[in-house]
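Before surveying the methods themselves, let us examine one representative protein, pairing a chain with its fold in token form.
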Amino acid sequence: MHLDDRRHALMDAMDTQGVWPADSKWVRRAILDTVPRHDFAPDRLWTWNGDDAYVPVDRQGDPDGWADLVYAGPDDSTITQILDGLPSSSLSCVAVVADMLDSLMLEPGQKVLEVGTGAGWNAGLLAARAGPGNVVSLEVDDSLAAAARRSLATLGLDVTVHTGDGNAGWSAGAPYERVIATYSVEDIQWAWIEQTRPGGRLVIPWGRLGHIALTVADDGKSASGWVQGLGMFMPSRGTAQGREHHEIRGDSVPDRTVRVDHDLRALTDAHLVFALRVSHPDIRIATRTTGTGLTVQLHDGVDSWATATVDDAGNTTAYEGGPRRLLADIAAGRRRWEERGTPPLWDFGMTVTPEGQHVWAGDAQAGAYTA
């Protein structure tokens, strides 16, 4: 299948899922026509081998496989760089890119700071809307920054790409009317807010689970806003990602069998999972549907883990290892969420000041949402 055919097939899938932004028609035009995704994909991409490693897929040796990775499904990212065996840069999935650009509410002529240039595709989409000379982008990796400059120049997109630490922003170009990050952070960087005009808008992936849109207060002393959508994002370069479940679990015998009195199938509810991400930020939750039911895996990235299987009748078998009682922690977080009226993820928001940040549900004046 030709690249253009694959691109249109992906766009059709976006139509079928109804995920094109209704209020930002420019996003669809830019992605489909103006700034082709494949023009920013390097000749070597990476894919998981289904077992234990990421393996390369080269455009020259496997052009069809390469094209399939560039134009996979709306919710599939394209891995463009591997460092130390882990993905370190990617072309983000189209559905999330479209959603974040919609959330940014970008208008022609506005000055934009992007942190995390990567391959340069998102910067190109920003330039297609904001216009020449209005987009400043920061990339910590010299080689990625250079490749992005070349790709943007080839398409005639006027973006200034600097090499530097995105967390520090780019004060030389401030103030900006819009700021967008393409990697996740646990703590919103105050430098980004400080470099944004009062009334300006920031869209930031928070905690590798969703993105939030913040508006800077008129006095510039705070920024507040709401969660906009879900999506997994790579953390900023150099962030310790912790140990994975299988590393913590190892081959050891579980420390204990756990009785579970609540239905763990509720952990497939995105709204509950987001609330747990807020109340218990260090607990990672993964679910997988099998032919006989559901498997749930929990871990804290350090030394505690839990695994549970739930059959179709709701019967649960669960084991834990390590000092923490993760299943009990998750149960407490769920009770807290239910006591608060089971707020959907869209009801969560954040306020950021120079002193720090807090997440709330429903009303910023209600105080921080905690377990």
